UniProtKB/TrEMBL annotation:
BP GO annotations: proteolysis
Protein name, per record: Lipoprotein, NLP/P60 family
Family that this chain belongs to: Belongs to the peptidase C40 family.
Organism from which the protein derives: uncultured bacterium 32o03
Keywords: Hydrolase, Lipoprotein, Membrane, Protease, Thiol protease, Transmembrane, Transmembrane helix
Domain (NlpC/P60) ranges: 210-333
Transmembrane segments: 7-30
Amino acid sequence: MKRVKWIICALCILFPVFLLFICGVMLIGVSDESEDGDPVHASGLGLSDKVREYAAFVGDTAAEYNIHEYEKYLLAIMMVETGGEGNDPMQSLGNSGLTEEEKTPSESIKAAVAYFAMLLQKADTLGCDLDAVIQAYNYGAGYIDYISVRGKAHTFQLSCDFASSKCGGRKVKYDNPVAIAQNGGWRYEYGNMFYVYLVKQYLESEPLPADTANAVLAEAYKYQGWKYVWGGSSPQTSFDCSGLTQWCFGQAGISLPRTAQEQYEAVQHLELEEAQPGDLVFFTKTYKTDNYITHVGIYAGNGRMFHAGNPIGFADLNTSFWKEHFVCIGRVSAPSQ
C-alpha cells in the first residue's frame, strides 16, 4: 500500500514537470518557424482621403529631389505611418527639435522626401534594392549598410535578423493581420520587421500596359453577341460576367479568381474618373444575393464597358441603371516579367 502511495506522489510531482517541458518545446517550435518565407500581405487597399489630400504636395516635393517616380511609395509610407493624420503625417520630425505645436504636415513631408532621397542614393551607391530603402525608412540608413554585405537585396529573414540584433532578440506582441498570419502576432522590439510588406499593401498599381489591355479586350470582343450563361467560364459554355473577365484576362497571362466578389477583393479600387482600358468595373445589387458585388465588366474606354450581359456586348456606364449600381473601378496588376 505504501508503494502505491509513493508511486501516486511521484506521478503528481513529475506530471506537471512533463507538461512544462512539452509546452516549452511547443513554444520553441513556434518561434523557430516565425521567420520562414516572406509574409503574405494584401494589395491595392487604397489610400485614405487624408493621404490623397497631400498627393500633389508630395509629388511636387519629390520632383524637387528628382524622385517624382517614387511618389506612390511615399504616399504608401504616409498611409502606414499615420493614415495622413496629425501634424507629422510622415513621422519624420521626431528628432527635429520642433515642439508638437511647431510641427506641420508640409515640414513633415519635406523632411521625409529628403530622407527618402538620401536612402535611395545610398542604396544606389551600394547596389541595394528598393525594398531595402523602404525598410530603411523604418530602421534607419544603417539597414542599407547591413544589406549591402549580405546579398544586397532585402529579405524578411534579414529584416528579422537586423531587428533582433538591435534589441537582443526581445519580442513584443503585434496584432497586425500580416504578423498574425506570419507568426501568430509578434515582432521584435526594434522597429517593425514587417514594414516593407505593410507599405506594399497601399501601393497604387499602374494601368495595364496598352498591349496587355488590348489583348484582354480583343479576346472579349470575340464573344460579342453570345448569350449569357450562368456559371459559364469558357468558349465551350459561353460566359457569365466573372467567367468572361476571368477567361479574357487569363488569355493575356493574368490570373483572376472565379467570382465577381472574389475579383473585387483581389484588385485595387479606384474612382470611375481614374478608369483606363483594361480595368474592371464593379456593381452591386444588380440582382438579389448575399454578396456585395453582383456584376463585373471590363472598361473599354470612353465611358463604356464590355461585359456579359444578355447578350454579351458593350454598355454605356452613364445610363441611370449602371450609375445607380456602380461601386468602383478595379485596377488589375500586370503580370510579373
